[in-house]
Amino acid sequence: MRVKRLMSASVYACTPDQSLADAASAMWERDVGCVPVVDTDWRPIAMLTDRDISMAAYLRGVAIGEISIESAMSAGVFTCHVHDDVRDAERTMMERQVRRLPVVNDAGVLLGVLSLNDLVLARTRSRLHAMRERLRGHVIETLAAISRHRLATPAE
């Protein structure tokens, strides 16, 4: 199955010069926890999560309207191509421990976002039992890899 079939095509993106308040407002209105950050040609350069916003506000101690997206966004981004096989996108999510991938075309222009939610919802919508079982296995493996803690927790 191709990424194009599962991705969310209706996507909002921000630019680095906008404020975190702009991004938070967009996330709230669209019921999402992340927005791609794009350059002037609509190529993804980063992802900004609700966690990035809250941590930036906490660490700086100022209103999010006073903080630029550029100062809080991730350093780099992992993407997938609209025609990639979903299993390849899942592999990227697992290896990079990300819950969302911007989906791009041949020119690298943002077309949508593939999220872990999209994978889960595809599984529940699938009418074919074999397809549902295969997707369930992939989704569980992807979620387990993404959820692995990156930092060691102190021994109790």
State mean pLDDT (0 to 100 scale).
Answer: 87
Please identify the structural class as seen in this structure: alpha+beta
Strand residues, percent? 15-25%
Helix content estimate: 40-55%
Describe the global form.
globular
Oligomer: single chain
Number of strands: 5
Unreliable stretches covering 5 or more consecutive residues: none
Strand order of the largest sheet: 3-4-5
Terminal CA distance reads 44 Å
Put simply, the count of helices is 6
Written as H for each helix and E for each strand, in order along the chain, the element string is HHEEHEHEEHH
Major sheet details: 3 strands, mixed
Task: Give an overview of the whole structure.
With 156 residues, this protein is of the alpha+beta class. The protein contains six helices and five strands. The chain has helices at 3-6, 20-30, 50-60, 86-96, 116-125, 129-147, and strands at 34-38, 44-49, 80-81, 100-104, 110-115. A three-stranded mixed beta sheet has the order 3-4-5. A two-stranded antiparallel ribbon has the order 1-2. The longest helix is centred in the last third of the chain and has 19 residues, at 129-147. The termini are far apart.
Short description:
By secondary structure, the protein is an alpha+beta fold. The chain has six helices and five strands, in the order H-H-E-E-H-E-H-E-E-H-H.
